[in-house]
Design a protein that fits this description.
- By secondary structure, the protein is mainly alpha-helical.
- The protein has one domain.
- It has helices at 5-29, 32-52, 71-91, 98-111, 113-121, and strands at 53-54, 67-68.
- The chain has a two-stranded parallel sheet.
- The chain is globular.
Amino acid sequence: MGYHPLNLALRFLLELCVLISSGYMMYVTQEGALRYIGMIGFPLLLAAIWVIFAVRGDKSRSGNTVVPTRGLIRLLLELGFFCIGGLSIYKVGFELYVVPYALIVAGHYLISYDRIAWLLKH
């Protein structure tokens, strides 16, 4: 189920949520030029990490990678990425949405049990 197109679409929407909320968090919490640098730079940094560090052959992605990464490390990077999303949602004042967001992320990973098992083997 981890490779089902609907689950992959859900993950893509969650990724967008992280990038948008982290950029908005930087806009809200910083001042001056740092506000704009962080608003653009922080999501770009997160996206770069997401793209660069991957497990070769991961069917939920292109299967290619810039920096081959062990499955456990990739899984930890993903969890950290989605935790940043939850923290960003909280920091901008949308506390009521943190729990539903976390439940959706948890549901995505429960559905992706086969992908998680694959990551842990590689």
